[in-house]
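Subject: Protein entry, chain in single-letter code together with its fold tokens

Category: Structural biology, sequence-to-fold work with a learned token vocabulary.

Notation: Tokens come from a learned vocabulary of local backbone shapes, not from coordinates.

Start of record: The labelled sequence and token lines come straight after this line.
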Amino acid sequence: MKKINFNFSAGMKKEDTRLEALKDGKVPLYSDKRGYGFVNITSGIWKRQVSTERIAITEKGCVVQETEETITWENLNHYNYGGLIFRVNVEKPGAYRVEVKTSSVPEQTSVAVSGMMADRMTDVSPWDAAGLVTKSNIAVWKDNTWCFDFVTGSSYIEIEVEPFLTKDKKPEGIIPEVGIAEITITELETIKRDNKQRPVIFTLGDSTVKTYIFEEAGMSGWGQVFDDLFDLNQAEVINYSMGGRSFKSMYCEGRFNEILMKGREGDYLLVQSGHNDESTGPEAGPSARFGRGATAETYEAWIREVYIPAIRSRGIIPIFVTPMTRIDGNKTTEGNIVLNGFKNSNCPGIDFPRIMKTVVSEYGIDVLDLYEESIRFIEKIGGGAASAMFLSIEAGEVPSKTNSGSYANGNPSGSSDGTHYKEALSKQWARILVTDITKQQIPIASYLKPVVKEAIESGDWEGVYPEIAKDIRTGENAYYRNQIEKLIKLDVLSKDDEGLFHPKEVITTKAFTEALNKMWKINLPLEDGIEPLTREVMGGILYDAYVIKFGKDRNGKYRKPKYMTDYNETNLSPHDPLYDPNLAGESAMYYPLTPWNKVADTKEINKTLYFKVSESYKLGLIRCEKGIQRGKMINGKELEPKKFVTKEKAAKALFFMWVLPQNIRDENDR
């Protein structure tokens, strides 16, 4: 395979191996004829400028000394610390091992290739929230030599060497000198798959494709449930998606590159991007060095100049997915669907789905138009059901967290999220995608489960999703659709013989206790008969179950899961790899916002149940329902202890309790 070496120093090797221009005392500047050299501006989609005039030729290599006056800093994502940029014409897209020996020490040197983020390239954190998709292609230092395997979609590779400085604020004081002593670039072969290895279907996208953990319970991405539709004996499905990502950020942090280095010829890559490409502002917008936003022109360029050629260079088969529509969660109602995003958005108002379809079609590459299909689906089920399936959260619905703390009292953002969504909707997006894959006769359709193939052909998905009751699909009955589907899937609640759930019916005390026993594998005593469940009785049952499940310590204090202890008024740092910039809001706590002594109707509680109900409330297991609202971090002030509990309200309470004992790091779709 092809190997190129450039020696900038005079001491470590024989003099005749040093670049000819350096022997003459001249800094080699790039030219097409030469095919290598230093440049003062990068060739990538986002341009960064440096000065080649300050490069000094020394015995140890080519070096640059920057000062406070020659560097710039505006924010965490937009800075330029100068340094050196060396461009090499490698003649064709493909994978290359890049080795850079620096004249400066690693602790003071930042090395990257072709516009990537140096700190993310050396970061060893897993790609997913559960820590199951480990990082294997990591930039490593050995003494003064930095090494990284990189896939370029162009015929150029640019080595960028900058001073290693803080990103949180503008650096002050002496800027360390940085320099290059040697560069070696070695072409790498594509990886072939032997007959014993299953093909891999990679999925790559943002939070709407991501695999979520129980810490984030309530949210789901289509990439999380996509593998459920495939025969995993025939193909492997791996989801590399993460919240807040765009075409640009997936490239810059090395997420896209990891797939290309790991994939084999004949593997598949489904890529969705668009939501975060809409980002604007000085830190997130397209003008920021590492901002995730895009213009119409740069969005097209990422597809055309980076993703398509890089994927094809590795023998991997690309499939592009247009991002699903968003809704305005605060304005969408049963009779009024308000679409949001892309051509239905004022800022920036760019039709990214159309651009993707136009560009990809030029190359004869398959594209799945989830955008248009998602609009059709939402129009079919109605605004009320759609809003319920997106991330509209009310108090007592789920104990998990967002960037800004707990969801237990409602959404800290103070709005109904029309971008992120629940598992009930992620399954529908996955269904739409595999149906389109089959319709277009894309080869991965052959790896679908037989029951999925039958569902696509017949249009009847009962065999794939038996948990979807017939009477929770539209209208007000769909309000707690997500909880109902999950509990039916877990065999905790059930449909009747006609496939109906009857969400507005009152549940019996016995049925609720049986469901809780089955879900938590405990043995609460069962009442005889068909006594309807009241809220005060439910509070008592939830307390008894909690004590059995979690118990108390030697001091008589309740043992508590992390949902109750770790996320109270604690904001997640933007530096955290799991941070999703779209999930920010007011700092939020788990425990009820209305203290027990402020609840208006506690005197109505049966005296024999008072202690258990009050403890259940203080533990956040039961909350005031009257006056709560989805999309608002608000609690009611009336417990309504004598009110009967419907099956849908029972499902809400059971879902909350189902999450509580779960390991926060486990994937939440089990």
Notes: The chain has three domains: 3-188, 200-381+422-457, 470-659. The first helix runs from residue 20 to 23.
